[in-house]
Amino acid sequence: MKVLFVVTSHNQLGNTGKKTGFWVEEFAAPYYTFKDAGYEVTVATPKGGQAPIDPSSEVPDAQTAATERYYKDEEVQNLISNTQKLSEQKAENFDAVFYPGGHGPLWDLANDKDSQQLILDFNKSQKPIGAVCHAPGVFKNVTLENGGSFVKGKNVTGFSNTEEEAVQLTDVVPFLVEDELQKLGGHYTKTNDWGVHVVEDGLLITGQNPASSEKVAEKLITFLKK
Question: What pLDDT, in 10s, does the model give residues 124-146?
């Protein structure tokens, strides 16, 4: 079984002068969930090469058993330093696709044509699609053949407005994930800030925040075992 991880290449946090990228836990926890279950993981970014890490995800409070393992793992460090190009990936070569969050995807993957096509191809091939935290924002411009939004009518979750307020980036991000998913016609639900909340609707499995990332991977594996 092969899983494609699609990770952001974007490293600028709006006009703040601060850095962003992907959130370590949202990569690490699902990565090890798949690896420990015997899956092969490929990591791709829009630009290829080094994937930028969100510095906020490296602070002591954000660390978990999975992140501790990640920092000591030379193999995974090598994967992150030498990601493949997203434009070269094809849905037919994988069994599932997973998007970790961090704020980066709101700027690049939300507008990335290769990402949009991949999501449509996985959907058409009846292969599951996972996204956690800010990553459900990648569905913003994914349009089905009938002209409707990919998430229209689907049960979804993602980083909530109150969580964005808590990290004081409401006025920095290009759009709010909760608002956008609702605007697109998705049936958005959430739990308390930072609680575990995962929503499964057919092929689409979404998680609200970093704490939900491992469970999204577990649900993808359960789906693939069917």
Answer: 999 999 999 999 999 999 999 99
Q: Do residues 31 and 5 touch, judged by C-beta distance below 8 A?
A: yes
- The beta-strand segments (E) located in 37-193 are 40-45, 84-85, 96-99, 129-132, 155-156, 187-188
What values do phi and psi take at 85, rounded to 5?
Answer: -80, 135
The two structure tokens encoding residue 120: 């449509």
Rounded to whole angstroms, how far apart are CA atoms 43 and 54?
17
**Predicted model pTM:** 0.97
Residue 187 · residue 129 · CB < 8 Å: no
Question: How far lies 119's CA from each of 15, 157, 207, in Å?
Answer: 29, 17, 17
Enumerate residues 6+ apart whose C-beta is below 8 A from 225: none
**For 175-191, what is the mean pLDDT?**
98
Which residues lie below 8 Å from residue 99, measured CB to CB, with a gap of 6+?
5, 6, 7, 105, 109, 129, 130, 131, 132, 135, 136, 138
pLDDT-derived band of residue 84, with 50, 70 and 90 as boundaries? Answer: very high
Indicate left, alpha or beta for 81 from its phi (over 0: left) and psi (-120 to 50: alpha): alpha
Of 103, 105, 7, 109, which is closest to residue 55 (Cα–Cα)?
A: 103
Could you give the percent of the chain with pLDDT greater than 70? 100
Q: CA-to-CA distance for 50 and 84, rounded, in angstroms?
A: 9
